[in-house]
Amino acid sequence: FVIHACIDTASKISTNDWKGKKVVLFSVSGAFTPTCHTNHLPPYLAKHAEFKAKGLDVIAVVAANDLFVMSGWARFEGCKDKV
């Protein structure tokens, strides 16, 4: 499937781009929702270096929100190139 990238909203990401890579893809019900905002995303950000050290290539999250909300959430959370 193809999705819009949140950091660069002009870019699209296809699961084909991940062929041969180690990927963690998780979903949340919504950006900025209390549980997702405080319990679901932060552990992935906190363990980013640990995942990379173990050979993980990509950590990605999807939600029901549009790309503009997801982009705002990514900036607010400091995702940058981590998720």
Compact overview of the structure:
The longest helix is centred in the middle third of the chain and has 13 residues, at 34-46. A two-stranded antiparallel sheet has the order 1-2. A two-stranded parallel ribbon has the order 3-4.
Written account of the structure:
The structure is a single chain. The chain is α+β, with helices and mostly antiparallel strands and 83 residues long. The protein has one domain (2-77): Glutaredoxin. The protein is built from three helices and four strands, in the order βββααβα. The protein has helices at 34-46, 48-53, 67-77, and strands at residues 2-4, 12-14, 23-27, 58-62. The chain has a two-stranded antiparallel sheet with strand order 1-2. It has a two-stranded parallel sheet with strand order 3-4. The longest helix has 13 residues, at 34-46. It is globular, with a radius of gyration of 12 Å. The relative contact order is 0.25. The model has no long low-confidence stretch (mean pLDDT 87).
The number of distinct helices, counting runs of at least 4 residues, comes to 3
CATH superfamily: Glutaredoxin
Q: How many whole angstroms does the radius of gyration measure? A: 12 Å
The tally of beta strands, per DSSP, is: 4
Categorize the overall geometry: globular
In the CATH hierarchy, the architecture is 3-Layer(aba) Sandwich
Structural class: alpha+beta
**Number of individual domains:** 1
* CATH class call: Alpha Beta
The CA-CA distance between the termini, in Å, is 18 Å
**What is the succession of H and E elements?**
EEEHHEH
For the largest beta sheet, what order do the strands appear in spatially? Answer: 1-2
Into which percent range does the helicity of residues fall? Answer: 25-40%
Strand content: 15-25%
CATH topology (fold) name: Glutaredoxin
Mean pLDDT: 87
